[in-house]
């Protein structure tokens, strides 16, 4: 009797398993309504103003928000976004932005906008990071690393409302990179109405946990280490414009229902599947559990190229991977020690072993794609004999031990920091330095870095805009130490003065000359060893249409469609 | 002239000899034993066997395929890993680390477990009941959980994972020792020694322990296979031994990063763990059935 | 009967108390500052520290703190995770059922495949089919579970594309967790593509269940086989044979039930192994269960989460173990407590 039961049950189980595998075809239509993106880590927050990590901006900037201006992914030029046009005064100090009308914020479970986007939202968004006295400034920590690192808050004299759709920003000094900074991933526009509502409810910090923006997708839910879910923003203004072109000019008053029907550019759902291991991300891409994946490992590129249903897009990236010394800790405060360590490693080997030749050797902070790239810059060379001599002169005894912090996540600029650290460890052993490798999870790692607990760290930087200032200032200026982007903790007045001089002018040649001096200075003081400028890769399934690599910052899914 | 023998030559094999004779008859068991011996030899003589250094990186030879593949080279039998380290060398050293630490773990657990178990078995009444109940309940806590707690307190590392696994293995030994001691205490020969005035300590050393060795060997092999799996699992999860230490689980986890490019980096260490555990299990099984046969005759 | 129940209840409560003491003391054993370990808050100055200590009753005696902790545990105030900032009760509430679900299916698989095969092998002991089953089981039993799971992924997901390799269900479905068991939740939900979702959930379950279940199945086969062989050599079987009963009659009347008895307590041990394996396999299949959660917590040194996670997992395992023991004792009071069969 019990035998029969066993049989029947196991039969049931078997059929169920079989059936599940042959339902592939009819579910395709349903699966086309959503895009799943395998991302590499947890975002720290959903407000990119608060964090410079690309994980955060990937998960928020281009999905949830819009900026006043955008970079054109192809040409890198600054193009209108929420600001439909702008004027710059002759002295280069006053910028007037004309804002778009009929832009709506997200309607979600937790917020329903009563008005559309206007100048108040722009002023709120900028004042939040600009003014210490702003009620929202200290919400969620009160650190705005990107803006702090470039010192933008100090340079803005005022942000004024001219009328409901016109904003005027006045600067104290000329800043040739100002517009570019407004187009970065971090200069997003938040909803002032939502902020007020939260203040009344007494929960202001929700503004960064339950975000409201104008972007193509609205936030639905987030489970740490598992997923982030976004839904289509039915009132997204870009789809609205497209429809206006198609139909007629009276479309401004179309009802909500009609708007929903005319959102051809957006899928219904966007899901970030958080998968830290790159081999697993590729596996999911191959089985179709993900439609696109972040940061394919360099070792996996060949595999992706050989698969017919996968597409590998590549572009030279605006990024730099480097090895930074904590210059506030002896003996790394001594430039000779830094130079010695730099001479102890062979960069070409690192390029080969870590990047598998998908990167170019870095001499300075700037990649060749930048207009200020200096081809004849000085570079350190592999010279262990010199290294040993310099170390001995600096009084560093053989057997000296130091830490190399290897970041735990993959980035285009450093796809495998641990492996690089192991290689460097071996090189350092040759010159009598014992290195230990330190790693934590990403959030802890960056917290400890900011506290300056490291001797040296392998990390890097991806540009947020094409301006050279975007490399030099956040990475090594004094102002960037508290904001935590200056991993070398290096502060040099000459350096800061040069950088300030460079952005006072719009003359490209003049700026180029100044950056040459900067490069020279960096070569002499060597707060960090530039290692590589890597290509940027994005792997996705061929069902996806409209995927492009955004060379400036985060991934974009607005306008990506799934067809099969 | 034929030799004349008054007495028929009578040979009494010792219990161990009888077990061995029966064990020898099973081909599978012998095969397992040979395999295990091979691994032990690898572990003991790792520096002599291996052609390279286990942590020596070789930048010119990254991800060389194993020798049986077309573009492999005979100088690296199992190929190399993502840092150009010889995989064969790392596996041999890995056997040493994994098997060695598992062995130490089991011996430690056995020492503690047997003493506690004997104590529990000889005790009576409330004390015994408390010890028994608690141990039984604690026995149910999964190894991985104990390991996670230990890692949280002491940090990661091979030695810390060994502590965790020792802790997890102790209850088994306690349990078996206790039931064994209890069963023996009721037997006549123990009663006889008691009547002879033997103290508890003497009872244990002279009467119980000699009878217990077989049980301990069998339990030991079981525990060894569990320890090997657990140590490599912790290494694999990055909670135990840390890279670049050659530990089989760690090697496997390292290989996972290059699975698509160099699948042998995952296949070979996995096979190594599998075969170590398999050989231990086969030997343990053979041993048990030989013992069973001996007892039942 | 009542006496047994009372005894097991005391045992249960006592064990839980020991566990709470261990988990309470963990806060002091973890490296670093106790206050920070407990709360995740770093006091800026001494005044703030004193205020926080008062808030979390850290200035009181250990015994008072322990009672306070116990009270918090009972009232469901389990504290907050460092990393996600969510209440731990909520997190455990989501993760725990996922693990239990996986473990249950794996256990069912082990029971429904392992025990029949074990009986078969035991009855035909030392025949070719027995040798085959036995060798297969000892081979499966020797697989390290993480490698076995990797092999399954490689073969069934990447090569044959039969089953997905991560998560409980495709993220595209929006399933409200009601019971925490994905299959039931799908049935209870009101989404439009229910049958698709159900199939999807099943296909997600397939590989992790097999990965965990296979090893327990192998263990089950070995245990059952040994038990059947032991029973076969008992005198009452010989008596039955001499009475002229057919082999089927002997099997159903004598062997079936008598062989099952010593297996039961062994199942209790298997639960522990099963949960351990489930925890490892979860990390490979990104299964959002308690094992995965705990391992993430240890990577991030999320001490409050570890403390509560440890409590939760061990409570579940110990409850199950004690229940199995109790059940075993109720159906077979003659058996001496904790006597177990051998493999």
- Contiguous uncertain segments of 5+ residues of chain A: 1-6, 11-23, 244-264
Give the biggest sheet of chain A: 12 strands, mixed
- Classify the oligomer: heterotrimer
The proportion of residues forming helix of chain A, as a percent range, comes to 25-40%
**Structural class of the helix and strand makeup of chain A?**
alpha+beta
Itemize the secondary structure elements and their pairings.
The complex is a heterotrimer of chains A (564), B (297) and C (343).
Chain A: H1 2-21, H2 24-31, E1 34-39, H3 54-64, E2 69-71, E3 78-80, E4 83-88, E5 94-99, H4 119-130, H5 145-150, H6 152-155, E6 156-163, E7 166-171, H7 178-182, H8 192-201, H9 206-209, E8 217-223, E9 227-232, H10 237-246, H11 256-261, E10 269-274, H12 278-287, E11 292-293, H13 301-306, E12 310-316, E13 319-325, H14 335-344, H15 347-355, E14 359-361, H16 384-393, E15 400-406, H17 417-430, E16 433-438, H18 442-450, E17 456-462, H19 469-476, H20 480-483, H21 493-503, H22 508-525, E18 528-541, E19 544-545, E20 561-562
Parallel strand pairs in A: 1-10, 1-11, 15-16, 15-17
Antiparallel strand pairs in A: 2-3, 4-5, 5-7, 6-7, 8-9, 9-10, 11-18, 12-18, 13-17, 13-18, 14-18, 19-20
Helix pairs in contact in A: 14-16, 19-21, 21-22
Chain B: H1 15-25, H2 27-44, H3 46-49, H4 87-122, H5 125-139, H6 143-154, H7 158-185, H8 188-195, H9 200-236, H10 248-256, H11 264-296
Helix pairs in contact in B: 1-11, 2-4, 2-11, 4-5, 4-7, 4-9, 4-11, 5-7, 6-7, 7-9, 8-9, 9-10, 9-11, 10-11
Chain C: H1 2-29, H2 34-39, H3 46-55, H4 62-75, H5 88-123, H6 128-141, H7 145-159, H8 182-188, H9 194-232, H10 235-243, H11 247-284, H12 290-299, H13 303-331
Describe this structure in words.
The complex is a heterotrimer of chains A (564), B (297) and C (343). Chain A has 564 residues and is of the alpha+beta class. Helices cover 36% and strands 20% of the residues of chain A. In chain A, α14 packs antiparallel against α16 (384-393) and α21 packs antiparallel against α22. Chain B is flat and about 75 Å long. Chain B has 297 residues and is an all-alpha fold. Chain C is mainly α and 343 residues long. Helix content of chain C is 74%, strand content 0%. In chain C, α9 crosses α11 (247-284). The two termini of chain C are 30 Å apart. Residues 337-343 of chain C have low confidence and may be disordered. At the A-C interface, α1, α2, β10 and α12 of A face α5, α7, α9 and α12 of C.
């Amino acid at each position: 009797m019990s035998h029969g039961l066993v049989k029947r049950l196991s039969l049931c189980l078997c059929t169920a398993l079989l059936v599940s595998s042959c339902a592939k075809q009819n579910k395709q239509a349903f699966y086309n309504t959503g895009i799943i993106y395998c991302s590499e880590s947890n975002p720290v927050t959903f407000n990119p103003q608060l964090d410079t990590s690309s994980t955060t901006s990937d998960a928020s900037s281009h999905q949830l928000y819009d900026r006043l201006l955008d970079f054109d992914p192809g040409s890198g030029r600054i193009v209108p976004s929420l600001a439909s046009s702008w004027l710059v005064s002759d002295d280069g100090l006053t910028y007037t932005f004309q804002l778009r009308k009929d832009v709506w914020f997200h309607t979600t479970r937790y917020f329903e906008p009563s008005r559309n986007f206007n100048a108040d939202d722009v002023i709120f968004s900028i004042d939040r990071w600009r003014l210490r006295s702003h009620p929202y400034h200290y919400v969620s920590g009160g650190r705005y690393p990107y803006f702090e690192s470039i010192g933008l808050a100090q340079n803005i004299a005022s942000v004024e409302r001219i009328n409901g759709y016109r904003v005027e920003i006045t600067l104290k000094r000329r800043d040739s990179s100002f517009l570019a900074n407004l187009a970065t991933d971090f200069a997003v526009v938040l909803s002032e109405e939502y902020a007020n509502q939260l203040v009344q409810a007494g929960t202001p910090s929700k503004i960064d946990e339950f975000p409201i923006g104008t972007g193509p997708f609205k936030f639905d839910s987030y489970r740490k280490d598992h997923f982030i879910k976004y839904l289509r923003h039915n009132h997204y203004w870009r789809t609205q414009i497209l429809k206006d072109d198609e139909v007629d000019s009276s479309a401004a008053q179309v009802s909500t229902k009609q708007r929903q029907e005319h959102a051809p550019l957006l899928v219904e759902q966007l899901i970030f599947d958080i998968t830290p291991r790159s081999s697993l991300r590729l596996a999911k891409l191959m089985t179709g559990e993900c439609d696109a994946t972040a940061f394919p490992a360099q070792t996996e590129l060949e595999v992706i190229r050989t698969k017919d249903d996968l597409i590998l897009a590549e572009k030279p990236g605006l990024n730099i991977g480097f090895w930074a010394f904590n210059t506030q800790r002896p003996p790394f405060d001594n430039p000779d020690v830094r130079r010695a360590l730099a001479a102890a490693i062979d960069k070409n080997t690192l390029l080969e072993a870590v990047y598998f030749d998908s990167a170019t050797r870095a001499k300075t902070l700037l990649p060749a794609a930048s207009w200020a790239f200096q081809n004849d810059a000085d570079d350190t060379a592999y010279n262990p004999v010199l290294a040993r001599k310099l170390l001995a002169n600096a009084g560093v005894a053989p057997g000296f031990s130091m830490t190399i912090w290897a970041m735990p996540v993959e980035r285009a600029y450093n796809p495998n920091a641990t492996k690089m650290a192991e290689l460097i460890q071996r090189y350092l052993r040759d010159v009598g330095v014992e290195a230990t490798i330190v790693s934590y999870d990403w959030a802890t790692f960056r917290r400890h870095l900011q506290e300056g607990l490291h001797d040296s760290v392998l990390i890097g930087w991806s540009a947020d805009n094409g301006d050279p200032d975007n490399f030099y200032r956040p990475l090594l200026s004094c102002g960037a130490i508290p904001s935590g982007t200056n991993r070398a903790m290096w502060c040099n007045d000459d350096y800061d003065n040069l950088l300030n001089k460079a952005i006072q002018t719009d003359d490209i040649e003049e700026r180029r000359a100044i950056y040459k001096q900067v490069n020279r200075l960096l070569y002499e003081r060597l707060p960090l060893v530039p290692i590589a400028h890597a290509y940027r890769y994005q792997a996705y399934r061929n069902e996806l249409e409209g995927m492009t690599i955004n060379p400036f910052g985060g991934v974009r899914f607005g306008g990506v469609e799934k067809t099969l | 002239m034929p030799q004349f023998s008054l007495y028929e030559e009578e040979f009494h094999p010792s219990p161990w000899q009888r077990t061995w004779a029966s064990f020898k008859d099973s081909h599978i068991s012998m095969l397992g034993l040979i395999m295990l011996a091979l691994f032990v030899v690898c572990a003991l003589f790792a520096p002599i066997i291996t052609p390279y250094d286990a942590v020596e990186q070789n930048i010119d030879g990254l991800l060389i395929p194993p020798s049986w593949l077309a573009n492999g080279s005979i100088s690296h039998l199992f190929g190399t890993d993502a840092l150009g380290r010889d995989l064969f060398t790392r596996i041999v050293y890995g056997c040493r680390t994994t098997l060695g630490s598992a062995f130490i773990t089991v011996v430690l657990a056995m020492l503690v477990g047997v003493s506690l178990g004997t104590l529990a078995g000889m005790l009576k009444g409330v004390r015994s009941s408390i010890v028994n109940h608690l141990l039984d309940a604690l026995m149910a806590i999964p190894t991985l959980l104990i390991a996670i707690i230990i890692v949280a307190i002491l940090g990661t590392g091979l030695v810390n994972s060994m502590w965790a696994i020792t802790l997890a293995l102790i209850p088994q030994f306690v349990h078996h020792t206790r039931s064994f001691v209890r069963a023996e205490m009721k037997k006549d020969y123990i009663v006889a020694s008691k009547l002879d005035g033997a103290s508890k300590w003497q009872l244990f050393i002279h009467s119980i322990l000699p009878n217990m060795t077989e049980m301990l060997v069998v339990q030991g092999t079981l525990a060894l296979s569990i320890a090997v799996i657990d140590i490599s699992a912790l290494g694999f999860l990055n909670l135990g031994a840390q890279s670049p230490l050659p530990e089989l689980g760690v090697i496997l986890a390292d290989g996972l990063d290059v699975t698509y490019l160099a699948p042998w980096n995952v296949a070979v260490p996995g096979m190594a763990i599998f075969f170590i555990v398999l050989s231990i299990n086969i030997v343990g099984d053979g041993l048990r059935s030989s013992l069973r046969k001996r007892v039942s005759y | 009967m009542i006496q047994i129940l009372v005894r097991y209840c005391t045992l249960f409560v006592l064990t839980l108390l020991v566990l709470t003491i261990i988990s309470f003391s963990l806060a002091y054993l973890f490296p670093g500052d106790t206050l920070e370990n407990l709360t995740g808050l770093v006091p800026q100055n001494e005044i703030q520290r004193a205020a926080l200590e008062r808030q979390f009753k850290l200035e009181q005696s250990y015994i008072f703190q322990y009672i306070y902790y116990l009270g918090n545990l009972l009232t469901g105030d389990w504290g907050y995770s460092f990393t996600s900032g969510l209440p731990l009760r909520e997190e455990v509430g989501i993760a725990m059922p996922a693990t239990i679900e996986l473990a249950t299916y794996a256990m069912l698989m082990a029971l429904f495949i392992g025990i029949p095969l074990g009986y078969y092998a035991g009855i035909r002991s030392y025949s070719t089919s027995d040798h085959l089953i036995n060798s297969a089981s000892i081979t499966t039993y020797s697989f390290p579970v993480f490698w076995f799971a990797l092999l399954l992924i490689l073969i069934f997901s990447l090569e044959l594309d039969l089953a997905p390799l991560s998560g409980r269900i495709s993220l595209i479905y929006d399933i409200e967790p009601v019971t925490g068991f994905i299959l039931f939740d799908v049935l209870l939900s009101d989404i439009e593509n229910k049958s698709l979702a159900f199939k999807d959930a099943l296909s997600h379950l397939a590989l992790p269940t097999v990965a965990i279940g296979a090893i327990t199945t192998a263990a089950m086969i070995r245990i059952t086989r040994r038990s059947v062989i032991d029973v076969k050599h008992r005198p009452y079987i010989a008596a039955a044979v001499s009475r002229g009963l057919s082999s089927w009659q002997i099997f159903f009347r004598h062997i079936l039930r008598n062989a099952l008895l010593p297996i039961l307590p062994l199942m209790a041990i298997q639960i522990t192994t099963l949960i351990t394996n489930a925890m490892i396999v979860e990390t490979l299949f990104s299964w959002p269960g308690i094992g995965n959660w705990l391992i993430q917590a240890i990577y991030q040194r999320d001490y409050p989460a570890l403390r509560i996670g440890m409590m939760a997992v061990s409570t579940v395992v110990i409850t199950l173990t004690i229940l199995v023991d109790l059940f075993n004792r109720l159906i077979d009071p003659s058996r001496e407590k904790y006597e177990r069969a051998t493999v």
